[in-house]
Structures are given as structure tokens and as C-alpha cells.
Write a structure and sequence with these properties.
One of its GO terms (molecular function) is dioxygenase activity. Helices cover 19% and strands 37% of the residues. By secondary structure, the chain is an alpha/beta fold. Strands 14-15-16-13-9-12-11-10-17 form a nine-stranded mixed sheet. An eight-stranded mixed sheet has the order 2-3-4-1-5-8-7-6, with helices on one face. The model has no long low-confidence stretch (mean pLDDT 97).
């Protein structure tokens, strides 16, 4: 593992054919706040987060992940990461420079091993945010992003070798082998995870709520609104976080969660959990059974943005 210079997850940017429908879902139903708009672009913030935005939506013909953005400590760390990646043969999309997105900052973009666009940035202006009130069932922050990979072992190795991500835990199945790897960039159990899938795509984006009561209120609010629930409510063993998975209007999986473990990184040793054991998937036993039909919902459509940088 290389030296860790990435500090945290900033935002996930999605391209969708129907921007108006997606924006309405994320604001009126999911609980994000529209902070900035531009031609064909919407920047959505979480009320409790200092990040300028946690989701960017762009109207496009093809549905895709536009990019996944991570923070670095300062401009020197951004330059170090860019130089390291270039010297190791990673293809840069943009050189380090001033960002033209809300909050500004300094950053660059590159393609990972499967062609996803990743952005690393520092010095982005802090957004004015507020504490989430008791009983308020809106996201506090973007918790983590999980991607499907057709070659997950290579993808895990890429984020370890080039970006210093640490392995927290692995999920396996006796018949299928290793299936999901949880990666961290700070003491949170994971800010990214890699899932074995038929093709590269978004598996899910997860949003942290204030606590269990707010998480359950949010889950209930989505159910009452008629949003399709895939799986939950329950509590995972890896990460010890709660989960309720839903489908957005374009078929992306989005999750409400809370109480993700914060690790003592000096003493933590990764586990390998067998998720054929029902208590690994759901300690509470309250979620619908995980099976191949439920799992397939999060395979998503093949990402059409691989090795094609978003236009903005």
C-alpha cells in the first residue's frame, strides 16, 4: 500500500437522460438541497455536510457515472498524487489546476483501471451547513459509494497501490468466492467498496442520516412515497451500519444508512465474512431475504462513460 494522501469522499456525479425527474426525486423525496444550477447541471448538497455538494446531476443522452470525487489535504498532496499516478502509467484526464465547480479548489482527474473518471481536490470552500435536528430524516452527508467491477481484484489493487486505500473487510460466499471489498481513506469503515459484478457500473450511493430514528423515519417516508425498495431495513455486520436500499427514477440504487463504524486503524484487522450466513447480511433479521433477484437490481446498466471523460 502506498502512502495515503486522500482524506475523504466528496461527491458522486451522475449523468441521466431526464434531469428534471432525477432532480425532483433527490430534492423533494430523498432530502438533498439544490444549491447551484447551470445549463443542464444541478448541484445537490446534504444539509449537514460542509461539502459544496454531494451529488451532481448532468443531463445527457446516456446514463453513467460522470465521476467520483475525493478530497486531499492540500495542493501539495494533489500535485504529489497527480505526479505519482502519471509516473505509474495512469492516464490523467486533466492536469492539476483551479476547479471551475462550486467552491472552487485545486484538483485533477484521471481514469481508474476500468475507465471511471475520478477527481482529487483540495482547498474547496467550506459550505455553510447546519446540525440536523432530532427526528429530521434528511441526509447528513454522503457516506460511501460502491461500484460494480468485472475485475474486482484488479480494481481493489488499483485503489490500494495508487491511492493508498485500506481494506477494512471482505464479503465472500462459499460457492462464488470473494464478492465485496470495503475500502477506507480515513477511520470510517468504508468510503468506497468494490463489488463483483457482470460489468463496471454504479452499485449504490449511500447517504448517512442523523441516527437510527431518523434513518427509520426516512425509510418509512420513502415507502409511503411509493419509491421501490430493494432491500432493508436492516443492519449489516461489516461496518455495523443500517441499510435501506431504494431505486431512483433511472434505476440507480441509493441507500439510507447510519452508525457506520469508526475504526481504530492502528489495531484493526480485516475480516472475511461469509454472507451465506444471514446474520452477516442483516444482524437484525428485519430485511427481506437477499437472493439473486435482489442482488441483480444493483448490477445496474453497463456504464457508458468508461474512458470517456465527462464534458464538465
Amino acid at each position: 500500500m502506498t502512502q495515503r494522501l486522500i482524506t475523504h469522499l466528496r461527491h458522486v456525479d451522475l449523468a441521466v437522460p431526464d434531469l428534471a425527474v432525477q432532480r425532483e426525486f433527490f430534492t423533494s423525496t430523498w432530502g438533498l438541497k439544490e444549491e447551484h444550477t447551470d445549463s443542464g447541471l444541478t448541484f445537490l448538497a446534504a444539509e449537514g455536510s460542509p461539502e459544496q455538494y454531494v451529488v451532481r446531476l448532468r443531463e445527457a443522452t446516456d446514463k453513467r457515472i460522470d465521476l467520483i470525487s475525493f478530497g486531499a489535504g492540500d495542493a501539495a498532496d494533489v500535485d504529489t498524487l497527480a505526479g505519482r499516478l502519471a509516473s505509474e502509467g495512469v492516464r490523467l484526464v486533466t492536469e492539476p489546476g483551479t476547479l471551475q465547480t462550486p467552491g472552487g479548489g485545486y484538483g485533477f482527474r484521471f481514469f481508474d483501471n476500468e475507465g471511471r473518471t475520478v477527481e482529487i481536490s483540495s482547498d474547496v470552500a467550506v459550505r455553510q451547513h447546519r446540525p440536523i435536528e432530532e427526528g429530521e430524516s434528511v441526509p447528513v452527508r454522503l457516506s460511501h459509494v460502491v461500484v460494480n467491477s468485472a475485475d474486482p481484484e484488479a480494481t481493489v489493487a488499483f485503489y490500494d497501490r495508487h491511492l493508498g486505500f485500506s481494506l477494512s473487510d471482505t464479503l465472500m460466499h462459499p460457492r462464488m468466492g470473494s464478492m465485496m471489498w470495503f475500502l477506507r481513506t480515513n477511520p470510517w469503515h468504508h468510503s468506497m467498496a468494490i463489488a463483483r459484478g457482470p460489468h463496471p457500473s454504479l452499485h449504490h450511493a449511500s447517504f448517512e442520516l442523523r441516527g437510527v430514528d431518523e434513518y427509520m423515519r426516512g425509510t418509512g417516508r420513502l415507502l409511503r412515497a411509493g419509491v421501490e425498495k430493494i432491500w432493508g431495513p436492516g443492519r449489516h455486520l461489516a461496518g455495523n451500519n443500517t441499510f435501506s436500499y431504494f431505486l431512483d427514477p433511472h434505476g440507480n440504487t441509493v441507500e439510507y444508512t447510519t452508525e457506520l463504524d469508526v475504526l481504530d486503524e492502528d489495531t484493526w484487522h480485516p475480516h472475511v465474512y461469509d454472507f451465506s450466513n444471514p446474520e452477516v447480511s442483516d444482524q437484525w433479521g428485519t430485511a427481506n431475504a437477499m437472493n439473486e433477484f435482489v442482488a441483480a437490481k444493483s448490477f445496474n446498466d453497463p456504464d457508458k462513460g468508461l474512458f470517456v471523460a465527462p464534458p464538465v
